């Protein structure tokens, strides 16, 4: 009760001091002098008025401007040093001619108030401030990374506009050097030096200094999760990438639906080289298929096309080293290759698995095996060189390296499509299916265990040291024990469908993506959520597509990868994104199968 009474007494003293300015206090600031002021201004415009006063011990003061309006409105300045001539910026909210005056009080003690200055006359002209303020603040960014902000507004008098940004960390300013025409967008950048949640406030004013009301939005600053760049083909006709990326040194390889395969610079996201099918002068006539892989022994990117040819492209410049098409089937399309040294295993749309040799300048056919159903995902190669293929009819094949004979075949789930298989350190094979089961198969073909995970189906799996990490159609990421298939934890942060295979980082984090361009980072240990990067929102939805489809087309089922610098490469609906990761979070090479097709080259080789 005593504290409340004291606060009430102080408040009464302040009000009494402001209203009774004819009785200055002995230690109050001196009566201010209005050194200069404009003869006219505009309504709702911050108006520069030059003032001066002194205070005991040069203490800070605040200036009170009685605007002279009929509504009795008073404008109060920020704290300023006394003894210096300075500018205050009162704002008149009514039009007309007014006599205004200025007083000052001590910032540390508002009851110490000066007399009012002599009055000055000012004419306030009509003007409308900018309207329709639209701001764009990314939902998250990372510490010490340049972060982009945008704003636009329309001025009723078509005046030029400048914007004020308060970034919430103590940095705030009018970007008067970036004045734009009415309706145009201004883009500014700011770097946060701390991790925290900040409220960003943005407002606009015209050249007459009439301000609109501010808009605010929240941004979360962490150590990672910021989209560093977003790649789409370089022309207006280019389409977004659709293939799981291959990384070779500092270049990323993927292809788009515009008929081109691209190499993209890891640091900048800019195109380095491109190639399309030589079978037509129009790139739209043919498209690449499956997902590319890198043959390290020859330096070639291996990728198929629906022009019936399989291509080897030099990784340095994407020049064609050779092309090959089988003669035993008519115009097949291609799946995804698996690479073992200079040997290539790839299935055609004619349900034939081919065994080829990349002979640097040509391709040699070494063998083939006719399968009873299309291959799901891609073939993989176990530690002994045997080839494993999962089929859309629910069969899992293990073939000799030369494809001359079948070692064994298992019916995993009758007439239900399987996922690409993965392998652990002991040689145990794991495969999911569209009914939601995950099955573990020993090297000799016997079933080790089978677990129902999610009836919405399995999108992909990665193998850690002791756990299998499974993404599902219901947006779950589930960890299973390798020994018995028991669930150790389930993450339900994602509300969309998981796309592709998760990726395991060396620092204990796991990344996965959904069909709405969101990248999730969670803990491998317990599935705890760490952060979510809303990639499409971070780049502001600046797709060249006339209409953004609702979800990522999952037919290609593209998977993420982790670059050698720890950043995450994501194939989304409209872009290939590079998301800031952790320098200690490179691909977990100590895990038996840390990503789709195991490694950065998408080799599919254990």
Automatic annotation (TrEMBL):
<feature type="signal peptide">
    <location>
        <begin position="1"/>
        <end position="28"/>
    </location>
</feature>
<protein>
    <recommendedName>
        <fullName>Pyrrolo-quinoline quinone repeat domain-containing protein</fullName>
    </recommendedName>
</protein>
<feature type="domain" description="Pyrrolo-quinoline quinone repeat">
    <location>
        <begin position="435"/>
        <end position="536"/>
    </location>
</feature>
<dbReference type="InterPro" id="IPR035986">
    <property type="entry name" value="PKD_dom_sf"/>
</dbReference>
<dbReference type="InterPro" id="IPR002372">
    <property type="entry name" value="PQQ_rpt_dom"/>
</dbReference>
<keyword id="KW-0732">Signal</keyword>
<dbReference type="InterPro" id="IPR013783">
    <property type="entry name" value="Ig-like_fold"/>
</dbReference>
<dbReference type="InterPro" id="IPR011047">
    <property type="entry name" value="Quinoprotein_ADH-like_sf"/>
</dbReference>
<dbReference type="Pfam" id="PF13360">
    <property type="entry name" value="PQQ_2"/>
</dbReference>
<dbReference type="InterPro" id="IPR018391">
    <property type="entry name" value="PQQ_b-propeller_rpt"/>
</dbReference>
<dbReference type="InterPro" id="IPR015943">
    <property type="entry name" value="WD40/YVTN_repeat-like_dom_sf"/>
</dbReference>
């Amino acid at each position: 009760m005593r504290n409340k009474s004291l606060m009430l007494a102080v408040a009464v003293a302040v009000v009494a001091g402001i209203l009774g300015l004819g009785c200055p206090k002995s230690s109050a600031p001196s009566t201010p002098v209005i050194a200069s002021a404009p003869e006219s201004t505009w309504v709702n415009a911050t108006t520069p008025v030059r003032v001066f006063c002194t205070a005991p011990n040069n203490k800070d003061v605040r200036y009170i401007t009685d605007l002279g309006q009929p509504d009795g409105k008073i404008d109060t300045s920020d704290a300023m040093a006394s003894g210096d001539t300075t500018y205050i910026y009162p704002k008149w909210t009514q039009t007309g001619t007014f006599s205004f005056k200025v007083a000052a009080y001590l910032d540390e003690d508002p009851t110490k108030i000066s007399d009012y200055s002599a009055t000055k006359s000012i004419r306030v002209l009509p003007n409308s401030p900018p309207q329709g303020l639209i701001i764009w603040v990314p939902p998250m960014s990372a510490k010490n990374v340049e972060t982009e902000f945008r704003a636009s507004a329309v001025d009723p008098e078509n005046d030029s506009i400048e914007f004020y940004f308060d970034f919430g960390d103590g940095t705030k300013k009018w970007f008067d050097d970036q004045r734009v025409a009415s309706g145009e967008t201004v883009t500014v950048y700011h770097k946060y030096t701390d991790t925290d949640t900040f409220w960003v406030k943005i407002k606009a004013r015209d050249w007459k200094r009439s301000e609109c009301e501010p808009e605010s939005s929240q941004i979360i600053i962490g150590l990672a999760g910021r989209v560093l760049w977003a790649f789409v083909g370089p022309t207006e006709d280019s389409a977004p990438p659709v293939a799981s990326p291959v990384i070779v040194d500092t270049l990323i390889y993927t292809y788009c639906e515009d008929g081109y395969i691209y190499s993209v610079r890891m640091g900048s996201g800019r195109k380095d080289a491109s190639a399309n099918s030589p079978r037509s002068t129009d790139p739209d006539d043919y498209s690449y298929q499956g997902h590319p892989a890198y043959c390290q022994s020859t330096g070639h990117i291996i990728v198929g096309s629906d022009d019936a040819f399989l291509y080897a492209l030099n990784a340095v410049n994407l020049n064609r080293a050779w092309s090959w098409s089988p003669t035993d089937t008519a115009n097949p399309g291609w799946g995804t290759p698996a690479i073992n040294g200079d040997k290539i295993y790839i299935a055609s749309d004619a349900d034939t698995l081919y065994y080829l040799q990349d002979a640097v300048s040509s391709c040699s056919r070494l063998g083939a095996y006719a399968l009873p159903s299309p291959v799901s995902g891609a073939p993989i190669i176990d530690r002994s060189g045997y080839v494993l293929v999962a089929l859309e009819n629910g069969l899992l094949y293990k073939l000799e390296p030369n494809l001359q004979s079948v070692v064994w075949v298992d019916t995993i789930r009758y007439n239900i499509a399987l996922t690409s298989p993965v392998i652990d350190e002991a040689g145990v094979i794991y495969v999911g299916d569209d009914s939601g089961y995950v099955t573990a198969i020993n090297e000799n073909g016997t079933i080790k265990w089978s677990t129902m995970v999610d009836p919405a189906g399995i999108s992909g799996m990665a193998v850690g040291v002791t756990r299998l990490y499974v993404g599902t159609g219901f947006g779950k990421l589930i960890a299973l024990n390798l020994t018995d298939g028991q669930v150790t934890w389930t993450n339900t942060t994602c509300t969309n469908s998981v796309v592709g295979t998760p990726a395991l980082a060396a620092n204990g984090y796991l990344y996965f993506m959904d069909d709405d361009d969101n990248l999730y980072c969670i803990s491998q240990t317990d599935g705890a959520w760490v952060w979510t990067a809303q990639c499409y929102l971070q780049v502001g939805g600046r797709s060249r597509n006339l209409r953004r489809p609702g979800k990522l087309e999952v037919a290609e089922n593209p998977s993420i990868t982790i670059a050698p610098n720890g950043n995450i490469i994501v194939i989304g609906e409209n872009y290939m994104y590079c998301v800031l990761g952790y320098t200690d979070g490179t691909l977990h090479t100590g895990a038996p199968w840390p990503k789709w097709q195991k490694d950065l080259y998408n080799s599919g080789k254990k």
